[in-house]
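<given_protein>
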Amino acid sequence: MKNLSRMVNVVDTVSKDRINALKTKGIDTIVSTLNIVSGIADNADSIVEMGGNVKSLGLKWCVNLGLLSLYKEVLAETGADNRMFVRKAERGGFENVHKLFTKLAENGSAPDYVQIESEIFTEFDGISLGFEEQTRMINACINAAKAVNPACKIILSTKDSADNEKAKKWFNRFQVSGGKPFDIISLNYELSAETFYNLSINMSDLSRRFEAEILVDISSQESLGDADIALEDLDSAIEIVPLDRGFGVVYSNKVLDSAVQVA
């Protein structure tokens, strides 16, 4: 059985000293959310520096694409014209992600993973998108990342960690609508005895149905003191995901301050 990946969500950029401290906790991957806006590659010195710091310490880097700001920019330009919005959002996503990743690759810090949040399309008002339109926008970002680094693994995340019917419906619709291949499904989860069995069922079903590895993201849980499920229990559930497709866990930066070691 393979070792589980240990990832930490730092939200934004952090110093090399902090990254090194996280490494001593057993972390192998840094997850940072980058707020994608028009022209991000032109002002990316701090992002390039962070990527270089991650790589220099022998860790992997996962970039979570914060696309909401970019899509709001496009919406302000196009108004509630679906066709125009989708066309420009699709182009804007590809161009800005491609330019940013190209700059990172030129500096030896191309991300190992790129993550896209499936809920992004319900978080802005003023326009209603069909699923095929949403899929086109997601595909544009996947294409941009893969064009720069074909080895980059694609993570699609969902908040429906304990709702198997809802989760599998989304991924089914994504595939039927022409969604590009992806490698990992990330389930955003808060440790709870009440939902832990449902999480386990969801992990097993999604891994089989979509032939994807499973990542459990507990980074929204900033304190584990009151949790009625231990980290060891979570590890055990991920380790028994069928076909050795249990990938790992994402922790919060804050939780690791008080952790002796997570691995």
